[in-house]
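Reviewer comment 2.1 asked that we show a complete input and output for one of the modelled complexes. We chose the fe (ii) ion case, as it is the one discussed in the main text.
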Amino acid sequence: MQVYAHISDTHIGGSDQSVERTRLVMRHLLSFPGQLDAILVTGDIADHALVEEYETARDLLRSPIPLIICPGNHDRVPEFEKIIGPANQVLRLDGATIALADSSIPGRDDGHLSDETIAWLDEVLSERPEVPAFVGMHHPAVPLGVPYVDEIRLQEPERLAALLDRHPQVVAVFVGHAHTAVATTFAGRPLIVAPGVVSTLVTPTESGATVIVDYDLPPAFALHLFDADAGTLVTHFRPVTP
Ligand SMILES: [Fe+2]
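Response of the prediction step:
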């Protein structure tokens, strides 16, 4: 069994609570008495892509457990790479490969996987085709039933689907961006959206409005349990309160 904690959308500097919420969630994850193999952070790390926001994020996201991060639409790759690290990051664990890719487009809120990023993913996934893999990025590749987010989802998702077809060892896709825990499918695989750390997006059905961002609901994370022998991925979603 492998265990991955998946957080997203810390938006450091985006609200009074962004720092405290990120600290709370990281403290929670790092105090697990049980197994935790990796921490994944799927984008929108800094709200305004300021160097000082990235410096705060870097300090908050320090971890003795392997941790990888990709940028989101609120991030800017040059500042991200200067303070946080490469925009495309891979974790080669004993029983799994986890690759987080940059799906941001400079100056835009929707997402896209560039030719360079697709080539990077192809290369990383070709290294160990016999080892199960997970691919992550910021932008969901499918509509989630929330128009506000659906308009700024991953463009040309067929490029991602074709990549996954070339690498059948990819078990699931992990994303963020929506600030709400979602389980759906894409290209015949689970597509799991981590809830937001900074806030929670409420669906039109619940709120009666097009866009309701709730800053009072607690931050939350996804806990992925992967059983390589059974080939199953199970995800638990957990709020974190002080
Ligand atoms: Fe986003």
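Residues 18-30 form the longest helix (13 residues). We note this here for comparison with the apo prediction described in Section 3.2.
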